[in-house]
Design a protein that fits this description.
The protein is mostly helical. The chain has one domain. The chain has 13 helices and no strands.
């Protein structure tokens, strides 16, 4: 196999998975009723939709600040503009390439261009992602305990078990010690650098605290987004419902990264949870999910523009 064929395979895989996601999305619309879904979209309140988009885009400065602040507290030298560019580039990469590889690719870009040590940047970001997972599980458990939806009550115990297991795994990871080898090279050296960053996080709780606070602020903003999106379609959700829906969507996004942009996956997760779990009518549930995907598209375009504008600066 020549180089051209090898380079074409990842893109062919991306296109194939994207086609699968689009097929799932089209099937969801047809099953629900094309006309009813279209009516829900045409009747959406554009003011609420615009407000939802504006709040959703707060992720760009919030998550970039989280990454940069944690690195600063770990004494890793870098500029906020470089981390902002890396965050935006990762968002675009994750949307078009399956596997959630954007963080790894842009961390390597930070090191290759001399903007920040890549292994340390990537390890700190993975720690922040783990905080997102823990907070999402806590939100899921809280939402299931607080909701009045009968259909969702059987999921309370599994959610609490998952939350407890994740907390235990996180505490164990922070306690792991590793042997340092000054002569280590290659991959072994990369592992040592990653382990040292984790140990720095343990020794500097302020870094974990900063990451937790900004992760929680971002989670609250995304709950507001869902509340606005569903309100735009005429489906009012309670604060508890938006917390539950946000947690389910975030977890679904985390575990279904094999489809670019989570096309079809996000929409199915949101529709099933809001319709069968929270009692939102089918057309409004699908319409809201499609509006949410439209916001994500706009967010990715904005992130791409920011990366193009500042990613070349030194």
């Amino acid at each position: 196999m020549d180089d051209a064929q090898q380079n074409a395979r990842p893109w062919a895989r991306s296109v194939g998975f994207a086609g699968l996601g689009i097929g799932v999305l089209v099937g969801l619309i047809l099953v629900t009723g094309r006309g009813e879904v279209l009516d829900a979209l045409l009747g959406a309140h554009m003011g609420l939709f615009a407000a939802a988009f504006a709040v959703f885009c707060l992720q760009i400065p919030l998550l970039a600040l989280r990454w940069w602040w944690v690195l600063r507290l770990l004494d890793v030298p870098t500029r906020f503009s470089d981390i902002l560019a890396a965050h935006c580039g990762a968002a675009v990469t994750n949307f078009v390439v399956p596997g959630h590889v954007g963080e790894a690719v842009l961390s390597a870009w930070l090191e290759r261009t001399g903007r920040a040590p890549g292994v340390e940047a990537f390890t700190a970001l993975v720690a922040c992602k783990c905080l997102t997972l823990l907070i999402s599980l806590a939100m899921l458990a809280a939402g299931l305990l607080g909701t009045d939806a009968e259909a969702l009550r059987p999921w309370r115990a599994p959610a609490l078990i998952a939350l407890g297991s994740a907390v235990a795994a996180g505490l164990l990871a922070l306690q792991l010690e590793g042997r340092s080898d000054a002569d280590a090279t290659g991959f072994a050296r990369l592992v040592q650098r990653a382990r040292a960053t984790v140990q720095d996080l343990r020794r500097r709780p302020a870094a974990l605290a900063a990451g937790t606070v900004l992760t929680m602020l971002n989670a609250v903003a995304l709950c507001v987004v869902l509340g606005l999106v569903y309100a735009a379609c005429g489906a009012g959700l309670s604060p508890v419902d938006t917390v539950l829906l946000r947690a389910v969507d975030t977890l679904g996004h985390a575990f279904a990264g094999w489809i670019p942009g989570n096309l079809g996956v996000d929409e199915v997760v949101l529709t099933v949870t809001s319709h069968h779990g929270l009692g939102v009518t089918g057309p409004l549930a699908v319409g809201s999910a499609l509006l949410h995907k439209g916001i994500v598209f706009g967010y990715v375009l904005l992130a791409g523009g920011i990366f193009a504008a500042i990613g070349r600066r030194r």
